[in-house]
Amino acid sequence: MTNQNVVVADTNSGLNLAITVHVTNSSIFTTAAQKPPAAPGGYISISRKKLLKNLEINGGARINAWVDSMKASSPTHIKSTPSVNEEQSSWILHHPSALEMFEQIIDASKGKQIVMFLDYDGTLSPIVDDPDKAFMSKQMRATVRKLARFFPTAIVSGRCRDKVYNFVRLAELYYAGSHGMDIKGPAKGSKYKKGGDGVVFQAASEFLPMIDEVYEELVEKTKTTPGAKVENNKFCLSVHYRCVDEKKWSGLAQVVKSVLKEYPKLRLTQGRKVLEIRPTIKWDKGKALEFLLESLGFANCTDVFPVYIGDDRTDEDAFKVLRERGQGFGILVSKIPKDTSASYSLQEPTQASYGFLATSGGVETAALSRAVKGGVKSRGRIETVQIYPPLQEM
Ligand SMILES: O=P(O)(O)OC[C@H]1O[C@H](O[C@H]2O[C@H](CO)[C@@H](O)[C@H](O)[C@H]2O)[C@H](O)[C@@H](O)[C@@H]1O
Questions:
Q1: N or C end of the chain: smaller count of CB under 10 Å?
Q2: Ligand 1, atom 20: nearest CA belongs to which residue?
Q3: Residues 119, 182, 315, 339: which is the catalytic one?
Q4: H or E element, residue 316
Q5: Does residue 119 have an active-site annotation?
Q6: Does ipTM exceed 0.85?
Q7: Which of 121, 243, 249 to mutate to test the pocket of ligand 1 (most atoms within 8 A of CB)?
Q8: At what angle do helices 59-72 and 249-261 cross, to 10 degrees?
Q9: Residues 23-68: pLDDT tens digits?
């Protein structure tokens, strides 16, 4: 197999699409990512004609690049072929299941303060068609509540903070909404709460009027695209195309692009069947993670062990920060191979729930054994580990 890297950059929108072209004797695959991939993953089989069309660097190809990038976030386009399966196995070797590696993970965190960072959509709740109905299960809420008893825990979401809070409804957590641009500490009931009213941080307040203006404009201009939905996430916007006929994706991308042309201070990123519009400021989920660690007093701490679980491209910024710090690790929730800086993987949100139970179960056992032995005082630092049996419903 030969590989060729091609980067299609859209300077107007800020969307950089790196395509790795993998040519085998029988087929061509491309890997689409926002930066050149470090490891194989996310293979999409496309026709030779279409591939060549995409590689033409002209105005038309820009929109094609957008649309292919939109398709890349859609698992329905992943074909199961022998080479794809081969790549999947290779990907799993690089990003083993967090459940299977549980003992090793717990070993690595021994004696360290675990801090949990959890993405919401696709991590705590399953992906559904209607973004307003992305409810988390009672069981998931119970496990997150339990987890937060042992570790400082933060929800880091692309959604508006109030909205994600209304889904999670746990006052003892930290919440970082709008991709980390809107952070608030626990309202009550957390021993990890810092200061009087807790931490409050908003990185992009001056963009509020602009975001509202663009929201109105996008709502108006996407009215003619059946299924399109614009969501106001306070400091950023989401244009959903999950329910839009694929033939209309290109038109929708054009509309978003034409609106954004007038707003050079806004940039476009992509999530799972969603175009996300946000300020060009250097702030993302990775920065939010660093900010929260600092707020919790772990800025220069060597015995902190942050764990970030997420499913989306925007979570990659946090995975990268963890890699750069050489602390803790990232877990990508995904059924398909994706380019990622996460160390481990989980297939779906229910597995994350099991992982949490196992983690807090391990700590609970440790706390109990310490109480019996009169050992170490601090909770949340794992000494002994007990893996809970798998949940019945899994
Ligand atoms: O950072 P996250 O918490 O993962 O938020 C990212 C986006 O999540 C939501 O959209 C996604 O979930 C929806 C409900 O399952 C689904 O319909 C949509 O296709 C997904 O992209 C949220 O609605 C967006 O505003 C967030 O940007």
A1: C
A2: 272
A3: 119
A4: helix 316-325
A5: yes
A6: yes
A7: 121
A8: 120
A9: 333 333 333 333 323 333 333 333 333 433 433 333 455 667 777 7
